Amino acid sequence: MATTNTADRVLRPVVALLYLNLLISVAFAVLTFLHKDGILDYQVLHWESTGQANPADRAGTRASLESVLWIRPVSVLVIAIVYVRLAGRLKLGRRRTWVRLLVITVLGLAGLVYLVVAAEFPDWMRAGQAGQAVVLLVLFVLLCTKRVRGYFTKQGRVPAKV
Fold first, then answer.
1. In a domain, 157, yes or no
2. DSSP H helices in 118-145
3. What is the tens place of the pLDDT at every residue in 116-142?
4. Residue 18's closest CA among 148, 156, 155?
5. Transmembrane stretches, by residue range (predicted)?
6. Is the pTM of this model over 0.85?
7. Residue 44 domain flag
8. In a domain, 14, yes or no
């Protein structure tokens, strides 16, 4: 039983941050779906004002931006599947699970920083992406602590005999 309590104490904040990040992702995927026209209008105007699109081909620009806009909801679905699987495997204490989570966290953080800095989204979306980046940054720092790192071994945790 001591092993389960240790696992719970070490892993609870990691799993909580994983699911918080997933919740934010799902919320913004839903908001993207609900406000897609406003987001597309914002992007089209931005592209036209910066010379990236021809104002005469507004429909073509909108169509190409709309196809890119749907990448986020689809990626959220994929991430959801990966997160649920990773959260379930964390208690096994395998080092490779920790490494996978660390890599996914770093890639997610890099992607969010790119979206905040370079992508043409309305300010409310950038604020949400920045908030999500903060959650991933905290998760990264937590994963790098000695306590969490030490929980994961190359062989994994051996279940306690009852």
1. no
2. 123-143
3. 898 788 999 999 999 999 999 999 999
4. 148
5. 14-34, 69-86, 98-118, 124-144
6. no
7. yes
8. yes
Cα–Cα distance for residue pair 28/100, rounded to 1 Å: 24
Show the domain range for 27. 8-152
Chain centroid, CA 32 distance in Å? 15
Among the listed residues 120, 123, 90, 93, the one whose alpha carbon sits nearest the alpha carbon of residue 104:
90
Q: What are phi and psi of 153, to 5 degrees?
A: -120, 165
Of 23, 14, 19, 7, nearest in space to 140 by CA: 14
Q: Which residue in the block uniquely carries the two structure tokens 């989570």?
A: 101
Q: How many residues does the chain have?
A: 162
Output the CA torsion 25→29→31→37 (10° steps).
150
pLDDT tens track for 35-85 = 999 998 888 888 888 887 777 888 888 888 888 888 877 888 888 888 888
The token pair that represents 116 in the structure block: 């905040």
Residue in the block written with tokens 């994983």:
18
The total of structural domains in the chain comes to 1
